[in-house]
Structure formats: structure tokens, C-alpha cells
Amino acid sequence: MKIATQVNANDIVDGDGLTVYIDASGPREAPNVPMAIRGAVSRRTEARASRDYATADALQRNIADAGYRVLSGSNNQNILAKKYRIRMRGIDAPENHMPYGKEAKQELTNLVQGKCLAIGVYCEDQYGRLVGDIHCNGDFAQVPHSCQGFLPLYVS
């Protein structure tokens, strides 16, 4: 089970996919953070403190290219978060360019935007996304999302 930070609207890809960021300081994530990324985060913090924003921005791009993001936490504390692409298990929403695609994306956005999610991961698909169940505020997210009338349940 992975616990994601708050989801932004820009992180919703379509009606059945989203990008989440997991706090990399947890026991499952921390051992896998490359030393180069740890060093880049530290140097970025120092660069920002000395108002060297060009260096800080360059380091931020390096961190992002490695699949991480530095988020601002409470008390101006930096949080290193790992990026994961998620596909909702059991949902086959229309693509954005298809009929009801934009509506499916908007419904998923309404459901998860600004909320922290718990994600039960089952496997990785052929595109490198993690396939899993999403729980939002303790509720199984796939049920209300599929009950809107334009999302068929995926049958394999």
C-alpha cells in the first residue's frame, strides 16, 4: 500500500490514470533513493538559501528527470517525493479524444484532486504504470467513478 501526497489536477492523465508522488523518506522508499538525488536535494536547498535560483532550478530539473519532486511541507520543510504513474484497476475509461473522455477525466479529477490517496498496487502494466486500487478518504475510488454512467468496468 502506497500513500500518495495530495493530488493536483495537472496529475490526472485521463479517466483511469494519474500521477502520484510518494514521500521518499518512508521505510520502503528511502533505501531506493540514489545518492546523487540526495545530494542534489541538499545542494538545491543550499542554493535556494543563498538565493542562487539558477543553480536551484537546474538541480530541480535533474531531480525531476530522475523521477522525483521536491515538495514544500509544513514549516517550510522540503519533502522529496518519488513519482509513480498509476492506472486504476478494473476501469477502462475512454481516452481523452474519445466520446466522454474529457468527462471521465473531469470526474476522476473531482474525485481525487487535493486529496491524499492510499493505493494498493497489484502489478505493473506494459507501459510501466502501476495498476492498483485507489482509496480516497477511506472509500474505494473505482466504485463512484464507474457509477457515473460513462465508464465501463474493464473485463479481461
UniProtKB/TrEMBL annotation:
Protein name (database record): TNase-like domain-containing protein
Organism: Papaver atlanticum
Residue intervals of the TNase-like domain: 12-156
InterPro entries hit by this protein: SNase_OB-fold_sf, Staphylococal_nuclease_OB-fold, tRNAsynth_Ia_anticodon-bd
Cytoplasm among keywords: no
SMART domains given in the database record: SNc
GO MF annotation, one: endonuclease activity
Alphabetical keyword list: Endonuclease, Hydrolase, Nuclease
Claim: Nuclease is one of the keywords in the record: yes
One GO cellular component, as annotated: cytoplasm
GO biological process assignments: tRNA aminoacylation for protein translation
